[in-house]
Structures are given as C-alpha cells and as structure tokens.
Amino acid sequence: MTKDIKAMTLQEIQDVLTAAGFEKYRAQQVYEWIYKKKAQSTDDFKNIPAKVREYLEANYDFFLPEIIKQQESEIDGTKKLLLQLDDDTKIETVILNDEDRYTACISSQAGCGCGCAFCATATLGLKRDLTAGEIVGQFLRDEIEAAHLLDNVVFMGMGEPLLNTQNVFKAIKLISDPKGRGFSQKRITVSTVGIIPGIEAMIEEGLKVNLAVSLITADTALRSKLVPMEKTYPIKDVIKAAKRYCAKSETRLTFEYVLMEGVNDSAQDAEMLVELIRGIDCRVNLIPYNKVSGKKYSSGQREKAISFQKILKGYRIKALIRKEKGADIDAACGQLAAKEDKK
User: Which of 168, 60, 159 is nearest to 114 (CA)?
Assistant: First the structure.
C-alpha cells in the first residue's frame, strides 16, 4: 500500500529519499512539484531522474481527491466540490470568490459528531477524521479549480477541526511551510464550537492562525440544546481559553452567531451577548440562517439582523452581517452534507 506524500513534511521526504540512496536536494524538488506546480503524477517531475520517479511512484501516492460533482452558484459564482477519497468516503469543499479574492472552505472530518441542531453536516454523524494528506489535497484541489492562488482558507467545512487536531495542525503546517506553498497562517481561520482541549493544543503547538468560535447564543440553556458540546465545554470557559490563545498568537478572536428567527435573534438575545463578550477584543460575524432541509429553523427579515447589529455596535462591539454565498447550491454556512443527488 502506498503512502500519501501530501501528508509528509519536507524533512520526512528527505529522510526517505536519502535512506533509499538518493540525493537530499531531490526532496525540495519533489516538494515544489507538489505545492507550487500542483503535480499529481511523477510523470510531471521533469527535472528528477527516472530512478527517483520510479521509486516515488512505487511507494507514494500523489493523487488529489477526485471530483465527483461540481456545482456553481448562478447568483455569486461560489463553487462546491463533492470529492471522493481513496476509501470512497465523500466530503465537500467550497471555493468562494469575492471581488477576485478567493477563499477555500475546507472540511476536517467526513460528517460531524457534534450534533448541532441547526446544521446539515450533523445529520450525517461522524464517519471518520480526514488525514493531513486529505486536508492538504483539498487545499491543492481548490487552488487548481479556482484557477487562482487562494487568498484565505477557513476550516468551516464538514466536521469539527479541533476534534481532529493532529491532522489539522499538520496540514496547516504543511501548507504554510515557506519551502513549499508558503501560505501565511494569518490567512487561515479555524472555526470551532468550543473544544477547549483543542484550543489549548493550538497554544501548545504555537499556531498563528485565526480562531473563530461558533457562539450561537449567550443563553447557556438554549445553547445546550442547539450546541450539545455546551454541556461538556461551557461557553464561558471556551471564551477564556480562546482569549488565552489569541493573546499568545497575537490574533483577534471572532465569534460566529447564526441568527435564527424567533430563537436567538431578539433584542434581549443581543443584550445577553453583549454581557458575555463586552470588553473582549473581538469581532462578531452575524450569519442569517441558511435553510437546511428537514430543519425547523429559518432566517428572519434583514431588518431584524440590522437591529441586532446596531445593539452590538452601540456597545462598540465590531459586528458584521455576513453576506450569503452559495445558498442556491447548498454551499453556505451549515449546509454541507456531501450529497450526490443535488441538481
């Protein structure tokens, strides 16, 4: 069985090549073919001798996840890719284009075990973690399909990134390695429902990525119903851990607040949120709920979102209403479910 070379660091590639009797510098050439030239086969390695190529071909896998289906929004040009992995597991990734700035929304797991009441991915349950190579493969595939270098990467696709820290962290380090793609960690955002051990692991790992916490509501009783992880990791403790990470990494904390009509979008809800986060150097992304089949939730009128935003701004809390993208192809926040039968 071949090993996924996209999950290997430059040092790991150097080690296997030198152990096989090849020159150390060949590893850097291989690295550049993977990350800078997006090669998917050793046949593309024009500056590498045949013996090295044959060794790599026999022992390592260079292929990217296969595109099973691709959809493009007729409204805003968002692209959603349904990808198939080596074991036939299916995941989704999304490419967003905003005035020629490209963002890849990447999955960290196939399915998700967090059970958030409003999310399409939660209906799948957790199938498995993605490997570092599969995560890197999404990044490379997205950059190819965008036909443009990516500007931002957000771990906001399928799964909870901080329940797959080993593979997510390694993937982040691989794509940010200056000897490879050199993608700045400052342009990567990891989103979490609030996995405190994962946030603490980010501190220990010395990451410099941005952190976004899916807050959803400041009402802890309600949050326990909407986000079951609240019972294990209370939001007040999550915020403390997030503040420690942002202080260490010198990044600003983002809170994501999905507005659901009649659930968490009242003036009282806004005031409760203020009480929870007031005084924190943060930004709040207000996200009108994107409809998910089989879920009872809906988004309210835009005027209500604006009123919510005004209350936050009245306390000098930075608050933005996120522009909906990709909802017509089920590619918006909370809609990913890896279905093959979408038209």
Answer: 159
CA distance 251 to 68: 37
Strand 253-259 relative to strand 210-214, pairing: parallel
Considering only the C-alpha atoms of the chain, give the largest distance between any 2 of them, rounded to a whole number of Å.
Answer: 69
pLDDT digits (tens, 9 = 90+) for 205-219: 999 999 999 999 999
* Residues marked as catalytic: 92, 333
Domain membership of residue 283 (yes or no) is yes
Contact 329, 336 (CB under 8 A): no
For residue 152, the enclosing domain spans: 66-329
Q: 43, 61, 79: which is the final residue of a domain?
A: 61
The closest alpha carbon to 51, from 69, 73, 26, 32, belongs to: 26
- Does residue 196 fall inside a structural domain? yes
* In the chain, alpha helices (H): 10-19, 26-35, 50-59, 132-146, 165-176, 196-205, 220-226, 235-249, 267-277, 302-314
Is 339 part of a structural domain of the chain? no
- Helical H runs in 160-266? 165-176, 196-205, 220-226, 235-249
- The reply to whether 291 falls in a domain is yes
pLDDT digits (tens, 9 = 90+) for 96-113: 998 889 999 999 999 999
Same domain flag for 313 and 286: yes
pTM: 0.93
